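User: structure tokens for histidine kinase, please.
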Amino acid sequence: MLDRSIGEFSRFLIIALGCLTLGFTTSEWSLTLILGLAAYLLSVLWQQHRFNRWLANGRRGPAPTAFGIWGEIYDDFYRMQRRHRREKQKLHVMLRRVQDSTSALREGIVALENGDHLAWWNPAAGELLGLQSSDQGQSLVNFVRDPGFVSYMHSEDNSPREPLTLPAPGNEALHLQLEVTRYGKDEALVIVRDITRLHNLEQMRRDFVANVSHELRTPLTVIAGYLETLQNSDMAPPAWRRPLVQMEEQAARMTTLVNDLLLLARLETSERKTGDVSVDVRELMERVAREARSFSGDRHQVSVACEGDCSIRGDASELHSAFANLALNAVKYSPGNGEIQLRWWQDNDGGHFSVRDQGIGIDSLHIPRLTERFYRVDPGRSRDSGGTGLGLAIVKHVLLRHGAEMSVHSVPAQGSTFTLHFPSTKLEESPSRELMETEGADS
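Assistant: Done. Predicted tokens:
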């Protein structure tokens, strides 16, 4: 660029010196210089006009022919234009390949811009969500009106989340799974999957478990009743005593399993919105501690540490089930005379309930799978302790319905600590504490 400027400046000097020489020869050097410079200026303006007209015409065709610096500018722009066209063609080919490949996918893909406005989608997404070409630029929540999805799209939290499962817009029989990934500035990619078959299979499984469990309750009740009658009467020979006791134990264990299956089925199939009553945490912990001591037969030391009076808004029976399952598990897997501590405390993150034992502990390899149905760290020991393998699965579903989470810290042979974390939105001051504060203020 510097060489071009020097060359053009040299050309200007040559013209100026030529005009001066001609002017001194004709004794009209000033007029000659003015005319020469005017001619140079007109040529520059003319080249600029041609250049502007070429640009205004969309740079179609080759650049105008010129000499000097303008010729070099034309050549540079023409080369840039050709390179730009080649890159544009490559981008078009690449975009076409991407569109063809995404059009062949079964999953729907929706590209969003400006937060939640439709920018592009493949045919599968258009079919699943009922989108048409005229919908481009509109907000996606205008078509997917599920409250959970609307709340997610309007949330400022951009951290990865679990996919959302909801009915298809305009077709309740079709179930979709939507996974949103944000990128760039106010841009997002939505993956839409048709999970109707999986949903129906899961519903069939839940119905089967619930129906079978319900049907088993009646014969189990009859069997347990006859066993109890035989044990309490003189009809059974002495040799039958031990088999009758074992049969009664197994009947009781099966009854517990059926009850847990029914509870889990109810938690899975009922609406996610749970009860909204005030449950006193201290009272709940004391009740769970009494049940744990009774289950233990006073072989364990069960202590309660509740920091402050607080209540949780939710379903009382579900919360009791979650707390009791953790406490009874601690009794099952702790040696005699072991200490089990139930603790509640609050901080800026919400309320926390923990159960700490001095039992056998759990290897870190098993912790991610603890909440799976019938998963056992030690199958033989779990069966001897009378566990059903459903306790932690029930705890998981109760926490999901209360917007809470569970964390596990365990060291083999040193014990485990299970902690339930409840959000502050689920907590409220207990009436007893509010009354005490009011009476203290009045006094």
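User: Anything notable?

Assistant: The longest strand covers residues 171-183.
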